[in-house]
Specification:
Elements: E1 4-9, E2 15-20, H1 21-28, E3 35-38, H2 39-52, H3 68-75, H4 79-88, H5 106-122, H6 132-136, H7 140-156, H8 177-181, H9 185-199, H10 217-226, H11 241-254, H12 263-266, H13 271-284, H14 292-308, H15 312-322, H16 342-351, H17 369-385, H18 392-398
Antiparallel strand pairs: 1-2, 2-3
Helix pairs in contact: 4-5, 4-7, 7-13, 9-10, 16-17
Length: about 400
């Protein structure tokens, strides 16, 4: 897909139909090919990226992003996407394997993009039809798709019982603590809003984060419960929905919500924009309270839940290895997949190029225990060259 040549905006929905040079030629040939996006979504995405990466020296030359072309160009080398992923889940992408030295060759850009796509899938993004080439080609709708999913993970990562024990007050009568631990963040936000609406003596009860919020009435009551002094009910007196949304945005800044969204975005009833605003609001001031004793009880229970998950650390390592983009490598069991030493050697070669010598290990050890131990010994040898201490017994135990 080439650069955008034509754009048409719907004044009512805010949707922009973006035609590319390739698509325009197809349309002239009798085909109708187009993709649309919401202008306020793009504005919010850009503001978000500019904020979370503002201090990152590796992408400072690309920031601030001001329009879709800037976003497309900034994503083409893969560095910005890798940085966003690490902001969402620290340490997902090993910075040592990101190609950063400019100018980057097309091979290095592709390698970075493959790394970003693999890492995004590792942290839970649902990637469909997104390849390094589609990003290099500047396919805006696909770029916005991956950016949104990374954003969503970043925004919701703190909205859970383990991070906020006070969420326990949102439990329903028949629910156990284990049920709340597993509750999706979006569901928590819905319950959180309804909890405060009930405390505000309102009969309104929302079911989702979409159109039910477009008039900003629910959000006005919610914010008034969070901070009555800084967020009064005056917006309700404003009959113009857009002006009311502007007032709500202004009030939210007074209680620590960063301005990623404009009033026009809030007034659309857009699920994505509402999720951004409400997650920022929750993280700034959730207004939930429990006793010290109850908080200790919940924290203890969540620690026990972590203890039950004995493989959590193993999954962290597997996630990291799978994000490296190694050809033919998908680790599903940290021990059995490591036994022959080949995958660790590939990891080492990725992190420290030229350290692994092809003539010093068995390429096809099969089930031969001696060959596997020999490979394991070479792994240890390579690590020691990088001043990493370990001992041979560790490898012998798992072969």
């Amino acid at each position: 897909m080439g650069l955008i040549m034509e754009k048409k905006e719907d004044s009512k929905t805010g949707k922009i139909t973006a035609y590319t040079e390739q698509e325009v030629s197809k349309e002239k040939a009798g085909f109708v090919v187009y993709h649309s996006f919401v202008a306020d979504e793009l504005t919010t995405f850009l503001a978000f990226i500019n904020d979370i990466l503002k201090d990152d020296v590796d992408v400072k030359a690309s920031l601030p992003l001001e329009n879709e072309d800037a976003l497309i160009n900034a994503c083409k080398d893969g560095i910005l996407l890798c940085k966003m992923i690490n902001q969402s889940l620290a340490g997902t992408v090993d910075e040592r394997v990101i190609n950063k030295k400019t100018p980057l060759s097309i091979y290095q850009r592709t390698e970075n993009l493959r790394l970003a796509i693999n890492a995004s899938m590792a942290i839970g993004c649902h990637i469909v039809n997104i390849t390094p080439q589609s990003i290099l080609d500047g396919k805006l709708h696909l770029i916005l798709g991956i950016v949104w999913q990374i954003m969503r993970i970043y925004l919701l990562k703190e909205i859970n019982l383990k991070q906020v024990p006070e969420i326990i007050v949102l439990a329903e009568a028949d629910e156990k603590l284990e049920d709340i631990i597993k509750l999706p963040s979006e569901k928590i936000l819905i319950r959180w809003i309804n909890y405060h609406l009930k405390n505000a003596k309102q009969t309104i009860k929302i079911k989702d984060l979409g159109l039910e919020l477009k008039d900003s009435i629910v959000i006005t009551y919610l914010m008034n419960q969070l901070d009555p002094e800084k967020c009064d009910l005056k917006p309700l007196a404003e009959t113009d929905v857009l002006k009311r949304a502007d007032i709500v945005i202004e009030n939210s800044q007074r209680i620590g919500v960063k301005k990623f969204i404009r009033g026009t975005g809030l007034a659309q009833g857009n699920n994505k924009l509402n999720l951004v605003f409400l997650s920022l609001l929750f993280n700034a001031n959730h207004g939930l309270h429990i006793s010290v004793e109850k908080k200790k009880e919940v924290e203890k229970a969540t620690l026990l839940d972590d203890a039950k998950d004995a493989s959590k650390e193993e999954r962290t390592f597997m996630l990291w290895i799978n994000s490296l983009g190694l050809d033919g490598v998908i680790v599903t069991n940290l021990y059995s997949d490591f036994k022959d030493g080949l995958i660790p050697l590939k990891v080492i070669d990725k992190i420290w190029p030229k350290l692994v010598e092809n003539t010093k290990y068995e390429k096809a050890p099969g089930t031969n225990r001696f060959k596997m131990i020999a490979n394991g010994s070479y792994v240890i040898e390579c690590c020691k060259k990088q001043k990493n201490s370990d001992n041979r017994d560790w490898w012998t135990r798992y072969c």
